[in-house]
C-alpha cells in the first residue's frame, strides 16, 4: 500500500472540500486519490488531505469520533530531501472552542520551528472534548483519548519518519490542551519524555472541584449533547483520579516538565494558576525537577514561552 509520502508530488491538484477552510489563508494543494490509497490502518481512513510548504493537513473517518477530525502535521525543513533521517515529534494540543488550526493560524508555529529538526502534530480535540473519553455522549462517539493514543500516534509513527519511543515524543498544549498534555504524560508514562502546559489546569479537585465542574459543563453543552464527561450529578471518582495530574506525581519522574501561567485574574487563569502552584509544590516535595513561569497577562499563548518550549523539547528528545 502506498503511503502519503511515496506518492509523486506531481499528482497534486487544487485543494477542495475540508481543505477549503485552510485554502483561504494559504496556497493549499490537495493530494489526488489518497482517501483509499493512503491511510487505512489503526482504525483511521483518510477522507481529505492537503499540503502547503512544510504543513500537511489530514482529515480522518474513525469510529472513535462521530464526525471527521482533522490534524495538521508540520514537517521540518528538508524532510523530503533527507530521507534517511528520523525526527522527534511534538504533539501540540489546542484549547477549548478551538481546533487543530490554532497554533498555525494564531501562534506562528511555522515560524517558531523554522530550521528546527522536529515534527509537530496538531490534532483536533473537540470544542470541549477535554482529551477524554466521556462517561456518556448523546452526540455520537467523542472518544478523544482513544483517538489520539490508540489511533493517531500509531498512524503518525507508521507514516512519518519518527522515533516511535518514549525519548522520541513530547506533548504540550494550551488551556484545555495543557490539561490534556499533563494527563496524557501521566496516564501513558512510556509515551512522552517531555510535557508542557501553557495555562492548563493541573488540579481537578481543588476549589470544590472547579475544574471538573468546568469540564463537565462545557462538555455537556458544547460536545456531548447533554451527556457527561466525568459523571453528573455524581462523578466517576476513579476517572477523576486517573486524569488528575496532582494525584499522578510518580508518573512525572524522568520527564522534562514545563509550566506557564499568567498573573492576571480572570475566570480561567485564576483557577489555572492556583492549580499549577499546587502541582509545582507537590513536584518540589518529591524532588521532581520542573521549569515554571508566571508572567503578566491572563489566558493566552505567549509566543516567547512557546518558542522556549519548542527549543526545550528538542533539547530533551532524541536528536534527529
Textual characterization of the structure:
Keywords: Acyltransferase, Signal, Transferase. This is Acyl-CoA:diacylglycerol acyltransferase. GO terms for molecular function: diacylglycerol O-acyltransferase activity; trehalose O-mycolyltransferase activity. Belongs to the mycobacterial A85 antigen family. InterPro entries: AB_hydrolase_fold, Esterase-like, Mycobacterial_A85_antigen, TAT_signal, TAT_signal_bac_arc. The protein has 320 residues and is α/β, with parallel strands linked by helices. The protein has a single domain, classed as Rossmann fold (3-Layer(aba) Sandwich). Strands 1-2-3-4-5-7-6-8-9-10-11 form an 11-stranded mixed sheet, sandwiched between helices. A hairpin with a 7-residue loop joins strand 4 and strand 5. The longest helix has 18 residues. The protein is globular. The two termini are 26 Å apart.
Instruction: Briefly note the CATH topology name.
Output: Rossmann fold
Count the beta strands.
Answer: 11
Strand order of the largest sheet: 1-2-3-4-5-7-6-8-9-10-11
Tell me the CATH architecture: 3-Layer(aba) Sandwich
Summarize the main sheet.
Answer: 11 strands, mixed
> At the fourth CATH level, what is the homologous superfamily?
Alpha/Beta hydrolase fold, catalytic domain
Query: In one word, what is the shape?
Result: globular
Level-1 CATH class name:
Alpha Beta
Query: What structural class do you assign from the helix and strand content?
Result: alpha/beta
Mean pLDDT: 90
Report how far apart the termini are.
26 Å
Amino acid at each position: 500500500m502506498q503511503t502519503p509520502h511515496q506518492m509523486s508530488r506531481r499528482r497534486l491538484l487544487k485543494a477542495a472540500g475540508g481543505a477549503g477552510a485552510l485554502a483561504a489563508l494559504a496556497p493549499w494543494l490537495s493530494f489526488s486519490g489518497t482517501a483509499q490509497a493512503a491511510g487505512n490502518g489503526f482504525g483511521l481512513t483518510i477522507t481529505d488531505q492537503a499540503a502547503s510548504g512544510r504543513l500537511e493537513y489530514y482529515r480522518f473517518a474513525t469510529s472513535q469520533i462521530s464526525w471527521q477530525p482533522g490534524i495538521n502535521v508540520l514537517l521540518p525543513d528538508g524532510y523530503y530531501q533527507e530521507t534517511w533521517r528520523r525526527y522527534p515529534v511534538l504533539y501540540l494540543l489546542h484549547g477549548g472552542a478551538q481546533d487543530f488550526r490554532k497554533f498555525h493560524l494564531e501562534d506562528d508555529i511555522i515560524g517558531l520551528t523554522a530550521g528546527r529538526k522536529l515534527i509537530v502534530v496538531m490534532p483536533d480535540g473537540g470544542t470541549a472534548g477535554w482529551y477524554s473519553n466521556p462517561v456518556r455522549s448523546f452526540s455520537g462517539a467523542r472518544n478523544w483519548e482513544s483517538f489520539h493514543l490508540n489511533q493517531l500516534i500509531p498512524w503518525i509513527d507508521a507514516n512519518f519518519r519518527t522515533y516511535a519511543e518514549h525519548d522520541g515524543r513530547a506533548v504540550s498544549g494550551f488551556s484545555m490542551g495543557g490539561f490534556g498534555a499533563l494527563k496524557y504524560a501521566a496516564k501513558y508514562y512510556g509515551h512522552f519524555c517531555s510535557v508542557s502546559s501553557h495555562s492548563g489546569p493541573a488540579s481537578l479537585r481543588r476549589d470544590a472541584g472547579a475544574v471538573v465542574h468546568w469540564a463537565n459543563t462545557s462538555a455537556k453543552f458544547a460536545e456531548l449533547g447533554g451527556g457527561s464527561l466525568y459523571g453528573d450529578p455524581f462523578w466517576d471518582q476513579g476517572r477523576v483520579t486517573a486524569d488528575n495530574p496532582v494525584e499522578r506525581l510518580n508518573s512525572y519522574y524522568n520527564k522534562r516538565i514545563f509550566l506557564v501561567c499568567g498573573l492576571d485574574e480572570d475566570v480561567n487563569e485564576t483557577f489555572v494558576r492556583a492549580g499549577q502552584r499546587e502541582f509545582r509544590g507537590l513536584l518540589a516535595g518529591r524532588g521532581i525537577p520542573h521549569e515554571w513561569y508566571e508572567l503578566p497577562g491572563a489566558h493566552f499563548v505567549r509566543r516567547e514561552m512557546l518558542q522556549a518550549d519548542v527549543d526545550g523539547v528538542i533539547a530533551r528528545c532524541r536528536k534527529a
